[in-house]
Every structure is written in C-alpha cells, then in structure tokens.
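Q: Start with the shorter request: fold the first protein.
A: Done. Sequence, then structure:
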Amino acid sequence: MKIIIAGAGAVGTHLAKLLSGEKQDIILMDESEEKLGKISNNLDLMTVNHSPTSINGQKAAGVAGADLFIAVTPDESQNMTACMIATRLGAKKTVARIDNYEYLLPKHKEFFGTLGVHSLIYPEMLAAKDIVDAVKMSWIRQWWEFAGGALILLGTKMRETAEILNVPLHEMGGSNIPFHIVAIKRGAETIIPRGDDSIRLNDIVYFTTTKKYIPYIRKISGKENEADVRNVMIMGGSRIAVRATQYMPNYIHCKIIESNPSRCTRLTELVDDGVMVINGDGRDVELLLEEGIKNTEAFVALTESSETNILACLAAKRMGVTKTVAEVENVDYISMAESLDIGTVINKKFIAASHIYQMMLDADVTNVKCLTFANADVAEFTVKPNAYITKAPVKDIGLPKGATIGGLIRNGEGMLVTGNTLIKENDHVVVFCLGMMIKKLEKFFN
C-alpha cells in the first residue's frame, strides 16, 4: 500500500513511525527540510521537501498512485486543500485533520466527498471522549466499548486491596469466570498472559467482560470503596476541555480553571451554563482549596505543557483527588507519568494515529484503540464469509504470538471466548495485540 503523509509534525511523525515497520510504501511530505531530516535518518521511508498544497510537490511525491493520502499539518485549511488536490491528481482515498466540529456533521459528509476530502479526523474531539470515559468510572484507567457496549474492555491498576493478587489465572475459575484477562502491564513490559501467570501488586490488568459483570470486576480489583465521580475540575480551557464538558453526563459537575482572562471570556460563551469558569492558575494550591478540590473526585490537566499537567495531577492526588487525567503530548514522558502513578494519560497523537490506522486496514475493522501505557492495540473485526478464523476452534486456529481474542459479539450479545469457541460468519471479534500487529491479523478475518 502506498501512503503519503502530508505534515511532519507530531501526528504525522508518529504515524510515520507506526507505519514504517509495516513494510508499506511510506512518503512523508513537508515544507520543512529540518523536520524531514530528523525523521529520515531513523526510519525506512521516503521524504519529499514540498508544501502539501503544492501541485508540483504532490506530483513529485507520486500522489497519482497513492492508496491513501493523509493530511495532518496543524493548519486545517491546508489539510483540506491538500486532500482536494490529491484526489484530483489520482489519490484513491484522502484523510484530513480538522479542528472545526461543524465539518463532522453527517449532513456535510457527501459535500466534502464531492470536493475530494473522503474522511475527516478531529483529534481534540476524540481525546475529549476518552477523557469522559476515564472520569465516568474513577477506578478504571482505560475503558472501551464494542458494539454499543455489548462487550467492554477495561484496564485497572491492582492495589493491596485486590482479591486476585498472586493467584495463577488457571485457578480463578476456569471457563466459568465472567471475564477474560487479555493483558497485564507490569513496569515497562506488556504480557499476554497464560494460565500459569499471576497478577502482582501495581500491575495494570486489562479485562474484557460484559456490562453485567463490571461490579464484580470492581470488587475483585479491590476498588469498591473508591468514590464515584460527581465533580470534575479541569485545568486549562483548551478545545479538548470545551468538548469534554459537552460530553460529560448530566450528573457530573464541571469547573474549568484558565489563567488567560480573554480565554475565560470566550469559554463562558462556549460551555453550558452549568459549567463554572474560573480565572486563575490551576497550580495555585490555595485557589484549588478555595474552589473545593477536597470535594472533587476527578482532576483533568489539559494545559499545553506535559510537565505542568503531570505535576498538577500529582499535586491533586496529594490533596485527596481519586482520579486524575493528564494530557501528555510528549511521548517520552508517558512512561514517566505511569511510574509516578498518574491515572489516565491522554495523547492526541496516539488517538489520531489509531483512527487513521483503522482506515488503511483491508479487513472490516469497526474499532481500533491504541492503549497508551501498554504499547498495544485492540481491534474489533467483523468476520467475513468463509474467513479462515471460522475453520476451527480458537485454540487450533494459530493466532500469532502476542495476539489474543478478548471476546466476541454475536447477534448483538457480548460473549467471552474459550479455546473451544468456534467463531462464525458476521461475528464481531475483539482482538488484543502487542505493537502494531493488526495488519498481520487481517488474513484470519477476510
């Protein structure tokens, strides 16, 4: 597959790194020779030093033979224009990164399609949805729903109160347990567990289950006494903050603390009346105490500084906040955030890359989620007629090492999978895999 990425910024560079190991024909295009030089020395890809909106530049990149043209520069207008030009020059499919929510409305999809912009991605909106999922349940690190919630993936950290510490998985009830442990994150290592593996203190454990059994998982994880989130304090009045308040359930009350007075004025116009906007420094302990941090169950740090967000979450934890969420755009800081026990980490690059990666898969993949801490991905495949995965029970199908089936959805109902399960045509199968292995799994489902 020939893929042209226009924009060697944070998202484009991260996407190029992910795809360069997939034996794809990757061309990275940017008008900054310096940016291209840094990445071409480390990755197996071709670079083109031209503006993404240059017709001659796109011709030089070979856009006429491109299967996918991805425009992810920081400039929305440039991305849209680049996609229009790429389509006219022969690119089969285009994707543009945007920052205007209005463009995503279903009524505009056909309009943009006729212009040559086939798909739109709004990383801030995707990040906001992840934040809301994270704070709705204070004891969960990561949460993902499949087929409208028929099957759930959740990750939670094991504390001293967990009932399942140091118990080999094969002793937990065998095929009768109402969950499947698909992965364990231990320090810097991600483990796809076997029956003789056991869960240790401070492991982050990823479960697949159905909604009915979430309270049971909360109990065995020792999290029953953690307070449910009713009040959220957000530090930084970014676009993500605005979207997050709009997606919050009605029972959660939000406050935004923003240091820029003019931005505060703008925020009062953008957010609902129930959201309180406070002009001040979210690092000011006295201000936080005055605004009720002691009665706040969740603290979300969304400033432009990863360091500030991490430190602010640490301070909030020391003041008794149960759940913290930090936007960490510097990838090098993510492992540090985990070692410091920051709750949920949000990274727009990972989120955007997951959604774009989904678009380049040949199989019918409904969902792809990058698990920030675990260097792993979860994908929801729809099984096609006569697919190889239907030919034998799961234990005999020969999935590659580093991949495991977390569950399936059949006729709208979530089901856990054992080695004897026989997967059928039209099942939605949830697969957990290390690294970016999803491409290798396509042959099982096509």
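Q: Next, the second protein, separately.
A: Sequence, then structure:
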Amino acid sequence: MDNDRLEGRVALVTGGSRGIGAAVARQLAAQGADVALTYRQDAERAHQVAREIEGLGRRALALRADNADEAALTGAVRRTAETLGRLDVLVANAALFPSGPLEDVDTAQLDRVLAVNVRAPFVLARAAAEHLPPGGRIIGIGSNVADRVPFPGLALYAMTKTALVGLTKGLARELGPRGITVNLVHPGPTDTDANPADGPNAPAISGLTALGRYAAPAEIAAVVAHLAGPAAGYVTGAVVPVDGGFSA
C-alpha cells in the first residue's frame, strides 16, 4: 500500500542477519527504507542481507554488536544516524532463547539473558530517542510465550518477553508527546534456524495454534513494516500478536 511506503526513512534492525530480523530488514528496504542491521557472530550472513538490501536500490549497513554490550549498542545507533544521515525506525529484535529446568539456570545465565533480552531494548530506545524525529517508530519483538507458556522450561524466556510489555507501554507514554510511537509484536511459532517448522517438536507446537502451522518470517516482517509506516501513526503502546491464534 502507498501509505506503508518508507522512502527517505532510515531503520536500524538488531539481530538482522537471520530469521525474523533478516526478514524485517528486507521488508523495510522493499518498502523504501535504508537499513542498518546488527549481528553478533555471522558476518557473512549479515553482509549477504546487506547486499540484498542494496540490490533493492537502498543503502545498507551491517554492524557487529553484541546485545549484552551497552557501548556496542549505543555505537550502532550513533553509526547508523551518522552514516545513513538520520534514524527514523528502531526494531529491537535480537534476543536469546533460553530453555531448561529452573534449577539449571545459574546467575551468570540469568544475568546475560536479562542483559540481552531486557536491558538491550531499553538501552537501544534511550539511544535512539536522541535521534528519532516526530513520526519516529520503536518496535520491539516479543514472543507469544508472554501470553501463554505451553511447556515447562520457559520461565526465564517468558519473564524477559513479558518485561517488554511494560517497557512498550511506558515508552509509548514518554515518547508520545514527541510524536514517536512504540509498539511490540509478539510472534508465534516461526520457521527459523532456531525453531524450524520441520523440527522434532514442530507438530506439537503447530497444534497449539489455531491455524495449525508455523509462520514464515516474512509474515512477521509484514506486520512490523506496517507499524513502521505512516498508516500506523495512531497505533502506540500496543501489543500485536502475530501468532496464528496461539494465544486465542
């Protein structure tokens, strides 16, 4: 749709080298945005996504940044604004997916997961807010398990993704007077390297959705891109499930 076009806008997508993050980066570029993306380890995949974005006629920037490193995150925001000239959209996507019994979670793992999944989105939003103009967008990527935890072993992950609900609503109130919207997308089971649709647990997980299947990453990206566009200018503080009816 024309009112979802993003020409002249610059986006930063964390964790943009694969899965949902890569799909979001590609979709934003397809709708006209220049896109920076962060990665932690796989430089080749990140630069491949950047080349695909450039193939769409947009500018791209691949930045190494560990989500647990506050200085790296603020540096990624700064470099995006300096290199691409501005920052209009932040998509906080990068996250860890811990699972396992409660008694196996030690303090070191707890602290790292909280740093990556909760502290990082706050740090990114704080840094991005210095650059975002009226009409700016902050979009978090949460999880369906914030609404429904279907299996044991997900307490730590569910806690971190639930924390993003409060962050989203608080930031929406704080940044709303500046014309900046803040929203959270809760994907359901999505076909990625970390959770493939043909994996051993996929039939059981698919059966928990109303549609009986996994999402393609592009289906999540389409909703994120809509929230990034002009048509969603009156949507803020919202938690948007894109979960195939998982939480219905």
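Q: Describe the second briefly.
A: Residues 2-242 form a domain with the Rossmann fold fold (CATH 3.40.50.720). The helical segments are 19-30, 43-55, 70-84, 107-128, 155-175, 202-206, 217-228.
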